[in-house]
Design brief:
Elements (H helix, E strand, L loop, with lengths): L2 H8 L5 E3 L7 E5 L5 E10 L11 E3 L8 H9 L4 E3 L7 E4 L6 E8 L6 H5 L3 E3 L4
Antiparallel strand pairs: 1-8, 2-3, 3-7, 4-5, 6-7
């Protein structure tokens, strides 16, 4: 699609990107201040702190509150968990070998698409599911 086609989705807070971008985690979206910003998903090893003792852990997409201890079996089954007060795009998941706990979060990224980017016709709306 051309940028003018995805722009309609962008202004209603959907994520858009170019298929031609090598980094598939890079996208544009409107932030809380109504500015169009570039974001990138990053994955880091979760460094434990006292938050693991909180009773406000949730499986992503569900409402049932649980302790971190109760969430371990869900992590081992491939589900994602998060604390209640974390942003929607931030969660923990287990590594495939079950040795590490990773935090994924979308960070504002210092990138401004060039005019060449805007003139390409490989823009797409990202489906979050």
């Amino acid at each position: 699609m051309e940028f003018k086609e995805v722009y309609k989705d962008l202004i209603i807070n959907k994520k858009v990107r170019r298929r031609g971008w090598a980094d598939r985690t890079l996208y544009l979206q409107i932030n809380d201040e109504c500015d169009i910003k570039c974001y990138r998903q990053e994955c880091i090893i979760f460094n434990y702190d006292l938050s693991i003792l909180d009773e406000d852990w949730f499986i992503v997409g569900e409402d049932e509150r649980m302790s971190f201890a109760d969430s371990i079996s869900h992590l081992l089954n491939g589900e994602k968990i998060k604390l209640k007060d974390w942003p929607n795009d931030c969660f923990l998941e287990s590594s495939e070998n079950r040795k590490f706990l990773y935090m994924r979060k979308n960070w504002e990224f210092d990138f401004t698409p060039s005019f060449e980017c805007f003139s390409e016709n490989d823009w797409e709306v990202i489906d979050d599911q």
